[in-house]
């Protein structure tokens, strides 16, 4: 049975929710400009690595830890802050997290602090009582969908190719969400240096379509 809490979570993580996610490419603009992602296959490869080994995995472990009862959200927020590889990526998670918390607070009347995005989502979602794996999977799907949409607009890909890429990547989401739901801080890691370097290089671009 589909519960209202699940629909609430999907509302909060939908493209319509005003976090400004469409303005952040997570370094994807830079790898497209460098000719490292030129088609659907290249986009799929890049996004799969980000999900498995980069900030996708990193965010989901932090989200899982923040969903645990009695979690120290201030400490986890500081950890998320410290793990960002460059100023733009810090800006991305802070600004989206602040916008997310602000809008959920307006809807619910709760007092929610401005935190980095995975911690903000965890704090907002905890009272929904949903399994951690469900929250993490929805978060990953939203992250992935936004980046595929950017690929559709900026590579550019056609709608069919772009959504075909998304369809091929979505099966990764349940497995990663399950693994992250069982993880702890010792499981944090990032082996996606190319994506991090692209975000660093993007900071130096004089003309940018996206903020990151």
Structure description:
With 212 residues, the protein is mainly alpha-helical. The protein has a single domain, classed as Urease accessory protein UreF, CATH 1.10.4190.10. The protein has eleven helices and no strands. Helix 4 runs parallel beside helix 7. The radius of gyration is 16 Å and the shape is globular. The N and C termini lie far apart (39 Å).
List the helices and strands and how they pair.
Layout: H1 4-12, H2 28-33, H3 40-53, H4 55-67, H5 73-83, H6 87-108, H7 117-125, H8 132-154, H9 159-169, H10 172-181, H11 193-202
Q: Which architecture does the CATH hierarchy give at level 2? A: Orthogonal Bundle
Average residue-wise pLDDT: 94
Report the total helices.
11
Low-confidence stretches: none
What is the C-level CATH assignment? Answer: Mainly Alpha
**In terms of structural class, how would the helical and strand content be classed?**
mainly alpha
Q: Helices and strands, in N-to-C order?
A: HHHHHHHHHHH
- Helix share bin: 55-70%
Q: What is the CA-CA span between the terminal residues?
A: 39 Å
Any idea what the radius of gyration is? 16 Å
The CATH topology label is: Urease accessory protein UreF
What is the 3D shape? globular
CATH superfamily: Urease accessory protein UreF
How many beta-strand segments?
0
Strand content: under 5%
């Amino acid at each position: 049975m589909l519960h209202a809490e699940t629909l609430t979570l999907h509302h909060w993580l939908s493209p319509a929710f005003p976090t400004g996610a469409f303005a952040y490419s997570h370094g994807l603009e830079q790898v497209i400009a460098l000719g490292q992602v030129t088609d659907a296959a290249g986009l799929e490869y890049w996004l799969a690595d980000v999900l498995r080994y980069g900030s996708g995995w990193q965010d989901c472990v932090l989200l899982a830890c923040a969903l645990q009862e009695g979690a120290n959200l201030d400490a986890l927020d500081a950890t998320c802050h410290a793990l960002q590889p460059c100023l733009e990526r810090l800006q991305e998670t802070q600004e989206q997290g602040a916008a997310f918390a602000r809008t959920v607070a307006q809807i619910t009347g709760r007092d929610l602090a401005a935190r980095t995005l995975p911690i903000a989502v965890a704090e907002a979602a905890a009272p929904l009582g949903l399994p951690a794996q469900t929250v993490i999977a929805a978060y990953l799907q939203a992250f992935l969908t936004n980046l595929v949409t950017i690929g559709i607009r900026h590579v550019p890909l056609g709608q069919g190719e772009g959504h075909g890429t998304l369809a091929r990547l979505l099966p990764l989401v349940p497995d990663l969400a399950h693994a992250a739901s069982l993880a702890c801080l010792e499981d944090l890691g990032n082996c996606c240096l190319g994506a991090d370097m692209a975000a660093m290089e993007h900071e130096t671009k004089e003309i940018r379509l996206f903020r990151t």
